[in-house]
Amino acid sequence: MNGARTKQNITAQDVARKAGVSRAVVSRALSNNGSISPDTRARVLQVAEELGYQVNFLAQGLNRRRSHLIGVIVSHISDPFRSSLLDGLLREIQRHGFQALVTEIHNEQELAETLRNFTQFRVSGVIVTSGKPPEALVNQCVQQQIPVVGINRQPDIPGVDYVCSDNVAGAVLAAEQLVKGGCRRFGWLNNNNSTWAGRMRGEAFILALQQRGVDTLQDLVMLIATEEGYEGGFQAAVQKTEGIQGIFCANAQLACGFLDGMRQRGKNAPDDFQLIGFDNTPQTAQYSYQLTTLHQDVSEISRQALAHLLARTRNPAHPSQISWVNVSLIHRRTSPSTQ
Amino acid sequence: MNGARTKQNITAQDVARKAGVSRAVVSRALSNNGSISPDTRARVLQVAEELGYQVNFLAQGLNRRRSHLIGVIVSHISDPFRSSLLDGLLREIQRHGFQALVTEIHNEQELAETLRNFTQFRVSGVIVTSGKPPEALVNQCVQQQIPVVGINRQPDIPGVDYVCSDNVAGAVLAAEQLVKGGCRRFGWLNNNNSTWAGRMRGEAFILALQQRGVDTLQDLVMLIATEEGYEGGFQAAVQKTEGIQGIFCANAQLACGFLDGMRQRGKNAPDDFQLIGFDNTPQTAQYSYQLTTLHQDVSEISRQALAHLLARTRNPAHPSQISWVNVSLIHRRTSPSTQ
DNA sequence: CTGTTAGCGCTTTCAA
DNA sequence: TTGAAAGCGCTAACAG
After folding, report:
1. pLDDT (tens digit, 9 = 90+) per residue, A260-271?
2. Is the pTM of the predicted complex or chain greater than 0.85?
3. Is the omega angle on the peptide bond into residue A80 within 30 degrees of 0, that is, cis?
4. I need a surface site. Which of A265, B2, B102, B260 has the fewest CB within 10 A?
């Protein structure tokens, strides 16, 4: 109908015209970048407001060679711990004024494609919470000054920062608790294709037991879940768990599944065995589980991740950093009180 | 060191030069848009491959006035149903070659800001799974030809498409099951500040009971959870549940919490009462719960959502559509078998 | 079929 | 402090 009102989008040009200045000034007013008199600035902002002007992020990013996007790579989003972590990351990303580009991957090839996609959007950073990115691709990011941070990943790529929960400390706490709880025979439950964090927990658990005088060859049973998550734990309970008094699980889902598997066979914790999991997902706190578990501080992990991202943005040549985030033992019903 | 190799990014210009064609031809080769001879096309693609050329999505989007981004608005990501839904949506979004811009909101104001942000990125579509977007903002999207689809939201904004689980059918199935199970006194558990979907389930449940001859004034107790999720359900169990034989819960978290709350008081399903939840989250299937529940087909919901988005992209003037997605009763242990 | 040209909307020197 | 002008990298209309 009416030409002017039908205009698709208000541009900086429009604002400039109405404020009686040049486009450059509008840009300065909005980005407080480059000098501008307070008066003009105020006037421009006023006009921008009136017109409902919104910066076109695509144009801005094209110019600045960087969008205000942060790419996040996840997998198994519906897993309780994974979704908590994503929750924490999104909070932190948004708190810093970025927008999250979230991609769920199902295999390593998708990871590679995703990483490429992210660079095509000129993201300001990449957070990897799953999979092992090919070093070549990561190097491309590094070269393009795109900071990459891995969460709970093996810290093995130069130029990448990592933040990991302190798995060793967690495993030690678990071993300590079980030994104090009077256990003599132990079990360690993990997936057959475990994550690096899971393996680390296992190795540290074994070592911690040995240091407490346990003959792990004799008195430690390695239980292996062939399926992911709860199901894997549930099925693992049919294995030779006879005589095991204290069990440590690589994650919360395995632990809940295992507990239920044992219950189905008429055994329960803490009467028949003691059980400690990792992750402290909401479910572990529920009345029907009340699992003793190691708490991963998702908020702190997220905070560290963003901190690394920002630090590396400022100084891309910074040497790789790795932060270990504290874990704590949440004592609940599946292990006896030791005092 | 060496000028050429240090080049920040390979552009279409570089490919054009090396292939001995113009930039336009490169564009055509990659977008199969506009005519080009098979030979040149092949040659250009070859060169692009060699050079490792990647389209700059920011520039592309700026030109096309549309990025290949889809904005998704979520909340409470760590809630099991919400994360399953997000999982489904991401799958579908990626399957169609888009990237997801995910924002978690914590109040209606953030929703508004997010919507504005999305438009600044020239998203190809917006999916709202939480909150009630201000009509004015949505209209701006519509005007800018950005399709908006709401999931499990009250379908009340013109120009927006909706996809909802068939809450009424679900409530009817629940009522039917409980009545067949021999219940005479009923309960309905919902949050005090419930979602539209929750309220709809409640109303339909009441109606369905009445149609089956239940005097709902006399024999239906309205239980109200003052907290969200599991905790809310757990605490609701301390209310006057005496004499209630069949309870229907607005969602899975409430149901699990309620079941646990009752267990703590020494009552269990299905012996002391029957219980049906909504959502069929993984947790409801676990050994310790085995909750009878109404399954929401997250994959189908996601498929429909994307279908609406694409349809409206083709024809923005299309009248608002609303799809009701089937729900099904998953019969487990908290209600007796009726045959 | 291919090249030229004119933008998309913003930022950023460089002069004035 | 402000404006003019030159891009950022890509697309699309228009000639040829």
Report:
1. 999 999 999 999
2. yes
3. no
4. B2
